[in-house]
Amino acid sequence: MTTTIAYDQLPDLAGTDLGYTEYRTVTQEQVQLFADATDDQQWIHVDPERAKDGPFGAPIAHGFLTLSLAVPFWTELLEVKGVSTKVNYGLDKVRFPAPVTVGSRVRMRATIAEVVEVRGGYQIAVDQTIEIEGGTKPAVVARGLYRFHA
Fold it and tell me: What is the superkingdom listed in this entry's lineage (predicted)?
């Protein structure tokens, strides 16, 4: 469910649990497109037949592909009205505790850890966890930094 707030309410979000997104299925087509875009053609990602006999029993998504899903997931969790610019400012910490096999479903949970005023706007630090349906460990644990300007 999307949390919708006005720009001037951003400082009040610290500590807010935004909940979960819907699940998305990671497909071989996505993995191949990511491999083509990044020139990372490692067989554990792009060769399903060989990957069956590999360490994960199936092809896996690139860690950075899984991390990049945070972008579309964000649109499901937070909408800030009255903003002229939104900037993905970066990441403080990222870990990839578990691989995402092709065909897995993933979703994201996010909590606003901190909101600070920056020149011309606000920066929010968000603890983001991308989970694998039925998994025991998350696929991605990251603290994202986002800036909003009125």
Answer: Bacteria
Residues 132 and 98: beta-carbon distance below 8 Å: yes
Phi, psi of 44 (to 5 degrees): -65, -15
From the list 12, 60, 55, the residue with the least C-alpha distance to 34 is 60
CA geometry: angle 51, 47, 97, nearest 5 deg? 50
* Contact assessment for residue 113 and residue 13, using Cβ atoms and an 8 Å cutoff: no
Contact 99, 58 (CB under 8 A): no
43-72 pLDDT tens trace: 999 999 999 999 999 999 999 999 999 999
Compute the 3-state secondary structure of the chain and give helix, strand, coil in percent, each to the nearest 5.
25, 40, 30
pTM: 0.93
Q: How far apart are CA 113 and CA 92, in angstroms?
A: 12
Q: Contact 81/104 with Cβ under 8 angstroms? A: no
In angstroms, rounded to a whole number, what is the distance separating the alpha carbons of residues 121 and 108?
Answer: 26
